[in-house]
Amino acid sequence: MTDVRSAAVNVDGVHGTPTDAVLSGLFRSELGGHEQVVFCQDPASGLKAVIALHSTALGPALGGTRFHAYEGEDFPEAAAAQDALDLARGMSYKNALAGLDHGGGKAVIIGDPEKTKSEELLLAYGRFVASLGGRYVTACDVGTYVRDMDVVARECRWTTGRSPEHGGAGDSSVLTAFGVFQGMRAAARHRWGAATLRGRTVGVAGVGKVGHHLVEHLLADGAEVVVTDVREEAVERVRAAHPQVTAVADADALVRLPGLDVYAPCALGGALNDATVPELTAAVVCGAANNQLAHPGVEKDLADRGVLYAPDYVVNAGGVIQVADELHGFDFARAKAKAERIFDTTLEILRRADTEGVPAAVAADRVAEQRISAGTRLPGAVG
Question: Does the reported pTM lie above 0.70?
Answer without folding.
Answer: yes
